Amino acid sequence: MTRKIRNRIGWAAGIGILLPLSLLAQEKTAVPPGTPVNITIQPAASTAPPISIVLGPRHGHVIPERHGCTHTGGGNIDVAQPTPDVLIITMSGAAVAYGAVRHALAAQAFELEQCFELSFDNPKVKKGRLTMEGRVIGLLRSHCNKDGAEYDNACAAVGLNGVGLLKLCVPPHSVGGKQNLSVNDHDGPYSVPVVAGKYMLQQTFHISAYAHPTVVPTKGPSAEFAPDPALDPLWLSYKEPFHGAIKKDFGFQVVLKVAEETEAASGAKEEAPPLREKLPEPTPVKP
């Protein structure tokens, strides 16, 4: 046997040693041409959070106020829980006022009291951290010097046994004198250590539009903080300053999250300012 042949045999043997034994042991399966191959992908099983938010009694209402030639729409309070440890509350509405022979005022006042319990589902967890943040998205329009629109009182607070733990207030905004404003404001996040127990969330929001008497018909001021079709396009000016605006996220939204308290989490999040005032007495809720 020549040296060249011996080198080839040694190289082939080395390759065989380097190949994984699992590949060498695999059996080939003949699949006829055109046979469909089904691949099944199973998602990984999701683990339950160590702390969950359990909803209790709720008292929420929206009060419209209308004087003169006005239009209101929406007036919704949506309470959603996408995951056991997250709670999302959204308040949405719209108001338009038209000046005619007398003053016109359109407004909506939102109020919510939501009881909830923090359940420590993992017995190893003794302490948690509750985080709250809020945002307001919408449009304010005015078309005359004496007309205006605004939103205010976009606030939320969480308390335990009548004592405030967390509070936020998104700064108010108003327009007048032919001003128009697109609003996307945010406050928080604020966080505080919590233990298992029953808590109370209180949330408020207010929007309004007002117009002065006029002889010549004009388009009215509006406060729009609700997705379509809460506000009929016929009530808006043909010179709409926010034509094509995406309105699906309009409203005042508060997000509550609870998680296990860790040193890294407590150092990464902003501590809520201490609250010493007592929360208002909750409205009785019938079971």
Rounded average pLDDT = 81
How many alpha or pi helices?
Answer: 3
Domain module tally: 1
Structural class: mainly beta
Low-confidence segments, ≥5 residues, pLDDT <50?
11-19, 271-277, 282-287
Q: How do the helices and strands follow one another from N- to C-terminus? A: HHEEEEEEEEEEEEH
The N- and C-terminal alpha carbons lie at a distance of: 97 Å
Give an account of the 3D structure.
This protein is mainly beta. It has one domain. 9% of the residues lie in helices and 49% in strands. The protein is built from three helices and twelve strands, in the order ααββββββββββββα. It has helices at residues 3-18, 21-25, 263-268; strands at 51-67, 69-80, 86-98, 104-120, 128-141, 148-160, 163-170, 173-176, 180-194, 197-211, 222-225, 251-260. Strands 1, 4, 6, 7, 8 and 10 form a six-stranded antiparallel β-sheet that branches. β6 and β7 form a beta hairpin. The longest helix has 16 residues, at 3-18.
Summed up:
With 287 residues, this protein is mainly beta. 9% of the residues lie in helices and 49% in strands.
